[in-house]
Structure formats: structure tokens, C-alpha cells
Amino acid sequence: MGCRARVAKRELLRVTAGSDADGRPAVVPDPTATSPGRGAHLHPTSECYELAVRRKAFPRALRFTAGAGLSAALLGEYLGQRDHQA
Ligand SMILES: [Zn+2]
């Protein structure tokens, strides 16, 4: 998903549909790729993340159909922290 550049799967970050600290539906990073359920993969970069948000790619890739909406803010924060560590 995201920019669709082809890379090895281990370079990608797995994300799943979970919930945030307030229990709302959210895209959750799964760096260890151990969460059950349907996952999607994207480059762990802000560019790829923003592209996926703009394309509304997360709900589609995660087959999330509930009307309440799927927040990607949690993943955005995660990637933001990652960027600062790099
Ligand atoms: Zn990408």
C-alpha cells in the first residue's frame, strides 16, 4: 500500500486495525508482526503514511467497514517518533 514501491517485506511496517487508548478504532503499528487479524504493510516513513492517509488506503487495506472511521493518528505519532530517532 502507500507508494507501491517494491521492497522486501522486512523493510515494511505491518499495521493492523485495532483501537487507540480511548478505545476508538485506529490503525495500530505492529513492528513485530505478531498481532492477529488482517494486516497491511507500508514503508515506515512519513511520506508513505501521508500518501496512504490521503488515498484512504488504510480502511481499504484492512477491510475496515464500520462507519465510525479508522483513525491513523496513532500510527502517525509512531512514525514521527521513529523519524526523530533516525
Ligand atoms: Zn512506500
What would you call the structural class?
alpha+beta
Instruction: Calculate Rg over CA atoms.
Output: 12 Å
Strand content: 15-25%
Give the names of the bound compounds. zinc ion
Major beta sheet summary: 3 strands, antiparallel
Average pLDDT reading: 87
Task: Chart the SSEs and their pairings.
Layout: E1 13-19, E2 25-29, E3 39-42, H1 46-54, H2 57-61, H3 73-85
Antiparallel strand pairs: 1-2, 1-3
The structure holds zinc ion.
What is this entry, summarized?
The chain is of the alpha+beta class. It has helices at residues 46-54, 57-61, 73-85; strands at 13-19, 25-29, 39-42.
Can you offer a commentary on this structure?
- This protein is an alpha+beta fold.
- The protein has helices spanning 46-54, 57-61, 73-85, and strands spanning 13-19, 25-29, 39-42.
- It has a three-stranded antiparallel beta sheet.
- β1 (13-19) and β2 (25-29) form a beta hairpin.
- The longest helix has 13 residues, at 73-85.
- The model has no long low-confidence stretch (mean pLDDT 87).
- The chain binds zinc ion (ZN).
- The site of zinc ion (ZN) has 6 residues, from loops.
